[in-house]
Amino acid sequence: MSDHQTQSRSASPTAAELKTARDEAAAWYAKMHGKVTHREVTDFYAWRADSLNDAAYSQVEALTQGVRDVAGDPRIQAIGQDLQARRRRRGGALARLKARPGPWITGVGLAAAAVLAGVLLTTQPFGQTYRTAVGERRIVALADGSTIDLNTDSQVRVRLSRDRRAITLDRGQALFAVAHDSARPFIVTAGDTAVRAVGTRFEVYRTGAAVRVILAEGRVQVTQAHTPAPTMMRAGTRLDLAGKAPARPVAIDVAAATGWTEGRLTFQDAPLAQAVAEVNRYSRKKVVLGPGVPADELVNGIFDAGDTTAFVKGVAASLDLKSAARDDGAIELRGPVPTATPKA
């Protein structure tokens, strides 16, 4: 994939350039809907900055959306249901068919097979589980047209049914772009917190018993098991939930808070200990605070997620700290060495 694209083109692209853009768009689409690193996400946005690449990628997205739209056709759903009924009656027949594909699995038949796979997926009783390792990021495209942007070291379970779209966030952080479907609410559960949406874009971050919800677009309803009334959130707000203490949404900079989706970590007057904990989520090379380092010193800056070395250098320079590698592979931030007072 090219890494030296320009922002726009003044001349009409050649046939070879068009083919290259289409091929790269297809490859990027496949990659971005699987497990990707934050570096790859940065490379993707750099590639898409080129107008020809952007147009090619948009065509791939439109084609995929068209396939998803067909999946909602009652006739296709009926075929899927019929296949499931046959599977129950014939036991392992589908497994044998998979081993001996017939001539219909070509051309349009292949697209239809993909649609049917999506229909079958929506009715699986146990759903699907998606997870990421430390430093990984994954974009999951659901059969209803929604997407889940799964951050580092996170896990979600997805179950789509006829009357609801149920997501369980077991751990970590995810940004949900919800396709509008008033007949099937989109509900994300994290512990005893449930976030209900119809068509919107929001983030849920679960760490232990604490849950944070950020609403980028639309409106969502947040409920907790121990509270009698739900909390309504508006776009541009954050809700922090921990224990049984009441909480209210507060206005935030959504672009900064969700910058991880583009491989960025933005700190605005963040305590050093909090910034270190956030940076440590994205790398197995950990940062630790040594004796005498002020954990509540404020940090400001934008860093690449996963670039621990750059973070350490930036913080050490701005806060007059030193850094040293430890035997266990971690990097320790240390306070300045006190200057000895000369004897009189």
UniProtKB/TrEMBL annotation:
Keyword NAD applies: no
Transmembrane stretches, start-end: 104-122
Start and end residues of each FecR protein domain: 129-221
Record-given protein name: Anti-FecI sigma factor, FecR
Family matches, as InterPro entries: FecR, FecR_N, Ferrdict_sens_TM
Organism: Caulobacter sp. (strain K31)
Chain ranges of the FecR N-terminal domain: 23-63
Gene Ontology molecular function: sigma factor antagonist activity
Keywords: Membrane, Transmembrane, Transmembrane helix
Pfam families attached to this UniProt entry: DUF4880, FecR
